């Protein structure tokens, strides 16, 4: 295999594929449009206060009893984990003008929600260390993928300085949301209509969502017997969880019930003020003492979302491997959490899709 395998996307699936190929001695290059690795994995910390911990603005948990690939890679990379805090009562917010109700949530006590110390970014960083740094090329946006009459494939990418580079490829792993492939990459010859229809209709996980994390000096809600878990029919946050690190500060994170268009129209400042008001209503005046607040609206991230993703996620049945056939069969391979039917939307799905892509590379070569 003279030409490299080109991996488009340096999220979890792209980096895992690169790590596996590197381990097998297969030449590869990872092209990433963003100026960072990780894709929809994004962990952050308070500037000048790393002691407060790291907070996830993308995926947060995994479930080791069900998700063997995640469990195995965490062990393989010697990453530290801790259990999601769930002790105490939950709050249910049904009405704007009434206080929330406290109740005990009955659940399977054997089910573990596990988090990574240092956030999910620690997994991304550990994976990156298993591959040569020079094979990951940031701010490199794939614009066109071309195949000639003899079956040779070339990738055309735009670099940060606006220049274009043409890269010959043995095959290509498309490790990015399928809708981005459909809208941002030109194929010559064109992709078959059945394949285009499939990837255009495959919703991007988390693309219409926003996530907010409010950081406090300690998890004060635990002192009054609360778990931090909230279900709200009022909003703006419809689900809230304890996001506190295993040591350091306290934190709460929430998912919005407010649609993407409504968030955009209201603006970030007003949206975050509504969030703080809701936390104060739920947890009292101590919730005003926010040390820092982080907000990531994935719908406004052009490397994640397209306009079709702004609507609430409903079309779950479309997840799974796109049907590549014709001249592009064995030339392009889709990876990413949307392409794994069983664990779509999870870190597990991203990992399984990467391992399947590498199996396909080996089978086709």
What are its keywords?
365 residues; alpha/beta; FAD/NAD(P)-binding domain; 21 strands
What does this structure look like?
The protein has about 375 residues and is an alpha/beta fold. The protein has a domain at about 1-40 and about 120-205 and about 315-365: FAD/NAD(P)-binding domain, CATH 3.50.50. About 25% of the residues lie in helices and about 25% in strands. The protein is built from eight helices and 21 strands. It has helices spanning about 10-25, 70-75, 120-130, 180-185, 195-200, 260-265, 270-285, 345-365; strands at about 5-10, 30, 45, 50-55, 60, 80-85, 90-95, 100-105, 115, 135, 140-145, 155-160, 165-170, 170-175, 185-190, 210-215, 225-230, 235-240, 250-255, 290-295, 330-335. The strands form five sheets. Strands 8-7-17-18-19-16-20 form a seven-stranded mixed β-sheet, covered by helices on one side. Strands 10-2-1-14-21 form a five-stranded parallel β-sheet, covered by helices on one side. The chain has a four-stranded mixed β-sheet with strand order 13-12-11-15. Helix 1 packs parallel to helix 3 and helix 1 (about 10-25) packs parallel to helix 8 (about 345-365). The radius of gyration is 22 Å and the shape is elongated. The N and C termini lie close together (about 5 Å). One of its GO terms (molecular function) is oxidoreductase activity. This is NAD(P)-binding protein. InterPro entries: Amino_oxidase, FAD/NAD-bd_sf, Flavin_MAO. Belongs to the flavin monoamine oxidase family.
């Amino acid at each position: 295999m003279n030409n490299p395998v080109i991996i488009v996307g340096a999220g979890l699936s792209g980096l895992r594929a690169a790590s596996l190929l590197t381990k097998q001695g297969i030449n590869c290059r990872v092209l990433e449009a963003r100026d960072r690795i990780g894709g929809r994995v994004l962990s952050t910390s308070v500037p000048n206060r790393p002691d407060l911990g790291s907070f996830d603005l993308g995926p947060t948990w995994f479930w080791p009893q069900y998700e063997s690939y995640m469990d195995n890679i965490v062990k393989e990379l010697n990453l530290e984990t801790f259990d999601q805090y769930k002790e105490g009562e939950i709050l249910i917010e049904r009405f704007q003008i009434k206080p929330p109700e406290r109740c005990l949530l009955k659940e399977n006590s054997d089910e573990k929600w596990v988090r990574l110390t240092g956030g999910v970014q620690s997994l991304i960083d550990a994976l990156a260390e298993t591959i040569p740094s020079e094979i990951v090329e940031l701010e490199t946006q794939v614009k066109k993928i071309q195949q000639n009459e003899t079956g040779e494939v070339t990738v055309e990418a735009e670099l940060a300085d606006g220049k274009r580079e043409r890269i010959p490829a043995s095959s290509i792993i498309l490790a990015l949301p399928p809708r981005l492939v459909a809208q941002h990459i030109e194929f010559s010859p064109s992709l078959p209509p059945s394949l285009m229809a499939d990837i255009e209709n495959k919703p991007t996980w988390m693309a219409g969502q926003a996530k907010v994390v409010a950081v406090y000096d300690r998890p004060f809600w635990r002192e009054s017997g609360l778990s931090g878990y909230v279900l709200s029919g009022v909003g703006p946050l419809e689900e809230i969880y304890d996001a506190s690190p295993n040591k350091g500060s306290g934190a709460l994170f929430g998912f919005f019930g407010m649609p993407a268009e409504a968030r955009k129209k209201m603006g970030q400042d007003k949206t975050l003020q509504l969030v703080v008001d809701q936390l104060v209503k739920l947890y009292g005046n101590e919730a005003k003492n926010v040390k820092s607040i982080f907000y990531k609206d994935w719908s406004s991230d052009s490397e994640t979302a397209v306009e079709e993703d702004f609507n609430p996620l409903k079309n779950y049945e479309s997840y799974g491997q796109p049907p590549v056939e014709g001249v592009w069969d064995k030339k392009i391979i889709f990876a990413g959490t949307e392409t794994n039917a069983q664990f779509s939307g999870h870190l597990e799905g991203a990992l399984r899709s990467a391992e399947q892509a590498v199996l396909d590379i080996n089978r086709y070569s």
